[in-house]
Amino acid sequence: MTIQTNALDFETSAQIISFPELETLTGKTPQHRPPLKRSPTLTRAAKWRAARYRRTRDLPRLASGLSSMRGGSPALLARLREIEAECQSALKDGAVHYQPERHVLALAALLAEERASSRATGLEGRC
Question: Cβ contacts of residue 43 below 8 Å, gap of 6+?
Fold first, then answer.
């Protein structure tokens, strides 16, 4: 299956997924996570999948060792961002190895883990 995207179409119809700024537990300055620009279809699919996210089932599908990381930890979030960025790069490049299911799962895991991290630090209402 080949997925073709027109870069101009993507840029004009992209949706922005923003992440809240979180204060670390030590009270230091907030960590800034830049927003992601993704297609509306990908965004809707990821949000739908994030609502059905199960850490024990979904993280091992993305990469080994992820499920052993503490939920919402900076290391886990950074690794999920790396995986999602790899998927986005493959999509934009039209790579043969691009897997839409993996991309949706990576973005959904990132959204769900960010939400869990926000709840843990008391910023749930700011998402």
Answer: 15, 17, 107
Residue 101 CA to residue 99 CA, distance in Å, equals: 5
Q: When comparing pLDDT for 54 and 4, which is higher?
A: 54
SS (H, E, C) the chain: CCCCCCHHHHHHHCEEECCCCECCCCCCCCECCCCEEECHHHHHHHHHHHHCCCHHHHHHHHCCCHHHCCCCCHHHHHHHHHHHHHHHHHHHHCCCCCCHHHHHHHHHHHHHHHHHHHHHCCCHHHC
Segment 22-51 mean pLDDT: 72
CA-based R_g, the chain, Å: 15
Q: Is the pLDDT of residue 51 over 80?
A: yes
Q: Using CA atoms, how far apart are residues 124 and 41, in angstroms rounded to an integer? A: 25
Cα(15)–Cα(18) distance, integer angstroms: 10
